[in-house]
Design goal:
It contains nine helices and 18 strands. By secondary structure, it is an alpha/beta fold. α9 (about 300-310) links the parallel β17 (about 290-295) and β18. The longest helix is centred in the middle third of the chain and has 15 residues, at about 135-150. Helices cover about 25% and strands about 25% of the residues. α3 (about 135-150) packs across α4 and α3 (about 135-150) packs across α8 (about 270-285).
Length: about 325
């Protein structure tokens, strides 16, 4: 079957390790099911995999891709939850939790196999491309907002780095849930798009907000860390799920954290139940993922290039 896969690890030039071509079709295994992929979306996780983060040389070649929507062996339209081993279904009792492509072949292929427990019905209101955007970036944003930030309608939230997959999802979900959303970006065009998607205001990265917020959704890391802390009201919560500009800010500002009793909460992906809730929320409220570009699978390198250069606003989707 045709697939996009990591053939080599290159920490400096990750796209050098990306290959397109034929790979073996997935083999049947007890408790697992095979899904015919209709659409899959890119995440920064895929670029990190090509750099060797979470993916070792011994696991190569590895088909990339965490997210997918397609049809199961009975023709049902489904969406995949890409966290394997979270519940123990389909794996041994001592196997640690992992994401597709860390241990198991991914979704950038004509077929993918996952534990049967990891398959959810696709709402008829969502296209395959829209549904394929939800299981990683949108699920991460959903958990950050509604589980770990604990915000309620009327609360205020700052989303750092408008344009990225998680950030865009947080803006759309937050606005749909009745939050007062603020966003930042270095790009004027991306700031305008953020407002169009429901942000109350969007300011250049690092600029002071009109008001301090109840929570910050942080995926940028070192470059925005200080601004995130300074933007919180006393007792506010910073939820972080990534650090695309680096893991080590120049100043940790611990004094600000303890003096203002700020909370810093780490967040990774989300549960199957949270994904089911996200799917229902999108279907019921007309919320749709923001898709920047849709490409056929054989143009995956082009999609990876957009992701690497940060040119997109929303998700890049590959269709099969």
């Amino acid at each position: 079957m045709f697939a996009a896969y990591a053939a080599r690890i290159d920490r400096d030039q990750p796209l050098n390790g990306l290959e397109l071509g034929e790979r073996p079709a997935p083999e049947a295994r007890p408790g697992w099911t095979t899904v015919n992929v209709k659409a899959a979306s890119l995440n920064h996780h895929d670029l990190w995999s090509l750099r060797g983060v979470g993916l070792g040389e011994e696991a190569l070649p590895m088909i990339l891709g965490c997210d997918a929507a397609g049809t199961d062996q009975d023709g049902n339209e489904v969406v995949l939850h890409s966290v394997i081993g979270q519940s123990g279904h389909g794996v041994g009792p001592d196997e640690p939790r992992s994401i597709l492509t860390e241990r198991y072949q991914g979704t950038f292929a004509e077929q993918v196999t996952v534990p049967a427990w990891n398959v959810l019905p696709k709402p008829k209101e969502l296209s395959f491309a829209e549904a394929a955007c939800l299981p990683t970036a949108w699920l991460t944003a959903y958990r950050m907002l509604f589980t770990n930030a604990g915000v309620r309608p009327g609360d205020s939230v700052l989303v750092q780095g408008a344009g990225g997959g998680v950030a865009t999802a947080a803006i759309v979900l937050g606005a749909a849930a009745g939050l007062r959303v603020y966003a930042t970006s270095r790009s004027e065009d991306k700031r305008k798009r953020a407002v169009e998607l429901g942000a109350e205001a969007a300011v250049p990265t690092g600029e002071r907000l009109p008001r301090r917020v109840d929570a910050v959704i942080e995926t940028v890391g070192a470059a925005t860390w200080s601004h995130s802390l300074k933007s919180l009201r006393p007792g506010g919560t910073l939820v972080i799920s990534g650090a695309t500009t680096g893991f080590n800010p120049e100043r940790t500002e611990l004094n600000r954290i303890f003096f203002l009793e700020l909370k810093v909460v780490g967040s990774t992906m989300g549960s199957k139940d949270e994904l089911a809730s996200l799917l229902n929320f999108c279907a019921a409220k007309g919320v749709r993922p923001v898709i920047d570009t849709t490409l056929p699978l054989d143009r995956a390198r082009e999609g990876f290039g957009k992701l690497a250069e940060g040119e997109m606003f929303g998700k890049v989707v590959l269709t099969v």
